[in-house]
Amino acid sequence: MELDPKYDNYDYPTKAPVAKPGHPGHLTDAQQAQVHQLRMMLETEGYTKRLDTLTLLRFLRARKFDVNLSKKMFVDCEKWRKTILYAGQPLKLDGRTINLDEEISEWDKDGSFKKKISKYYPQYYHKTDKDGRPVYIEQLGKIDITAMKNEGLEYEHMLINLAVEYEKMADPRLPACSRKAGQLLETSCTIMDFNGVGFGNARQVFGYIQEASGMSQNYYPERLGRMYLINTNWLFTGVWRMIRPLLDPVTVEKIHVLGGNYQSELLGQIPAENLPKEFGGTCQCEGGCGLSNQGPWCDPEFAKPAWWEKRDDTIENKASEIGTGSGAAATGDVTVEGAEAKAPAPAAA
To answer: Does residue 118 contact residue 98 with C-beta atoms inside 8 Å?
Structure first.
């Protein structure tokens, strides 16, 4: 796979472990050319952030390597990052619109938001599965919108937090997991627990799922590795029957609806010592698994600062040079679109 030293500043493996068409390290000549074509089209329109090869490949795979559709998806994503939308309107928090690149490093710096929201909507990353991917857990049946509002937590806070967590999965979590595994990991293993979801809270639960799913599909393509839906009841089964035909078959293949007998299948994918005890594992983190944030991203041997933590690299616009290899490319400089002053360009997100 050809790497561009102008954008591909990776310090972790860049070859996918499984030889699937269109995945890093397993590209045809035509697919490699489509990466270059998409990058040049975006550069022509003034974009310079997130033009690294791994990011462009995710957008290309999401649109079956149709370059024009991939370009539209990328441009729509960049517009959304500058002004996050909710229900089609700019999302505002304390009267200000949200620019995601500016928000990441400032969001919940003291951890108080995480502690507060975990009481009414547990959602957290916790260790890794047997493939080395980060495990993400949501307990949807515990969502209590009324209690959150009483604590000053609005729907907008939830969506911003979700976007920031997606960003932190992309960097630093996935790079750290890739370093530990010795191979490129681009996806997560997700557990969505429906225990407690019923008629009383179904509307607020499924309303949030709809917003979250839209964010994932439109702005974070190709990030789902496996998803386990556990403790599902007849209500969800009816909804699933309606939405399943509307999903991409590739996505459907990754989703496992398990009901109440899920422990053996979860343990087939996640080591018992990495799975919280309440889901059939043996892990009991001090202070609770939901707040522990345990994983390679906290291990000094594998963790490195994320792009949004590094603000000192200057960027200069100059022609790209293409290199070949599966490891890190040399560092290059580019200009940030729409800015006269020099500023850092984020790595793959």
So the answer is: no
